[in-house]
Give the backbone structure.
Amino acid sequence: MSLPRIAVDAMGGDEGVRVMVEGAALARRRHEKFNFLLMGDRAQIERALESHPGLAGAAEIRHCDRTIEGEDKPSQALRRAKGTSMGEAVAAVKRGEAGAAVSAGNTGALMAISKVALRTLPGIDRPALAALLPTLEEQDVIMLDLGANTECDARNLVQFAIMGAAYSRIVTGRERPRVRLLNIGTEAIKGTDEVQEAAQHLRDASTLAIDFDGFVEADKINRGDVDVVVTDGFSGNIALKAIEGSARFVTDLLKSAFASSFRSKVGFLVSRPATELLRHHLDPDNHNGAVFLGLNGVVVKSHGSATANGVANAVAVAARLLEEDLTARIRQDLAELGDHLMTNGSANNNKIESDAK
Amino acid sequence: MSLPRIAVDAMGGDEGVRVMVEGAALARRRHEKFNFLLMGDRAQIERALESHPGLAGAAEIRHCDRTIEGEDKPSQALRRAKGTSMGEAVAAVKRGEAGAAVSAGNTGALMAISKVALRTLPGIDRPALAALLPTLEEQDVIMLDLGANTECDARNLVQFAIMGAAYSRIVTGRERPRVRLLNIGTEAIKGTDEVQEAAQHLRDASTLAIDFDGFVEADKINRGDVDVVVTDGFSGNIALKAIEGSARFVTDLLKSAFASSFRSKVGFLVSRPATELLRHHLDPDNHNGAVFLGLNGVVVKSHGSATANGVANAVAVAARLLEEDLTARIRQDLAELGDHLMTNGSANNNKIESDAK
């Protein structure tokens, strides 16, 4: 098992220190063997810890007097990283002082800093951002990339499929996760050249421990019959946000419909347990914690607007991936897979996306 | 006003002639001045018309003994078009026998056949598929392209913006529709080169009668503060299906939640009017009828799985666009706009996408 210590960027996120520290405290109660490095303003962190003596006893504060801002471009963030709460959280993973880093800050900055500090695993050209989404079945579905890479070639997509499958094996316990490429149709002739070429490679790669069966359309992501949905960061980000927005749209409609008549209001009160269940199932906090896959270390991104409960879920994702040693598993899969990786060696490796992208 | 006659491909769609004819009959009741050309198997159409004497008196049957199949590639469909119900419906528009064609058949085939028969408007390189989506406000939002063009350059996106705005003016009555490019963030540095270049052009085009203000993310499509969402066909198709799938996901969850306890069932019955309103608002039939914009004529695509009511809505879209003379309006906008169109003359014009795309 990897080092049970998690570095938390206490300054990231819309709500600041209080929420990050409370989230860590909640997570600590669920994962008692973990302890924490809290990066950020010492005085503010100490004040926040006063309400959480359990965490205070299991946390070390590293004072950082600077932060990465939401508007910092990745290249600026890279130059400024040293001494910031985000930069130092990732640096702690690099130095082996923590097994994982969690931040609710600027996603592009976190990606750039993590990639430069931790480097990609051998055989991986680019890391990808992966998250768990709810389905109609018990099991969540993993989707990647969610925006780390605006444009992807077939090789990137194949590598994402392998990394997503490794993550899915931990989450589902399934030996051969059901992996599909996101596309605009399920017929073989549909989609871009990149998607078609990636599909061909995954079909040919019969030794891979994945159940690959072509394409999935965006309306089937949540049906519960797919474990990993692979796509480029542009489409993945659009699919993820469209799903979130549409779910919110329906629940907003529902609220206004229920508020529109006395009879509906009564109905709503009587059926409260059902609507609470719905609310719980759709609450983004319950699915908080996107993972950068493909790095030498675990980095988890929490939603900027997550509540303490959401932050706790993001920290729990980091804890679980450390307990199950995700990085070692991906490394092992990669070693076994060799030529299916389609890696081009070092040409693209560890290059940072230009800010213009 | 254009010719008030609509050509209906009576053989397209999963449900076949009965649903298409019933849909036309329903639409006819709402738009009494329209009459119809029904393309397809004469015996089947005559049988279906027996239940709809109103439509029978306002319809002419053109017997076609062949159909375009769901699995036909666009290039195959083009070769086979003549004499098929779909091909003849579009040909009727070309010959001026009808103002619009409606089909529930193979989308790629309908696109290819329409483009070759009707040609794109001067200044338009490629037609785009546009549909109305529900929002939290009274007014629907138009999104395009929804899958006609897998890959688009900046010029295509600018032309889509102009065509979408013309459609929106008819639907909303708004002189300067609020147009946004779909992107993975609202900051100027986000997105692909194509999206950024298109944004720059639309920002510079101050004489355009549109309210352009950069980007919209996929979770904001349904909020009701945007009239036209412009994107390439790959992302647009993914966004559209993600929205549909997520809405269905939430309503399925809701159904199972309400079915899970006696108390919830009672609540559900009491609040039935609210949930009926929701069902009505989200029913895809109520938003059926996607339009191919940018052609010399109106072509409307009905969902393959639409009910008669859905088909009626698709026919009503065609009727409305004829009444308001959409094609003349787009032509007029294009004439006024000149250099903002970024057209490259005839190089790409009227080229059919290869089947491999």
User: Anything to note?
Assistant: Chain B touches chain A through 66 residues (CB under 8 Å).
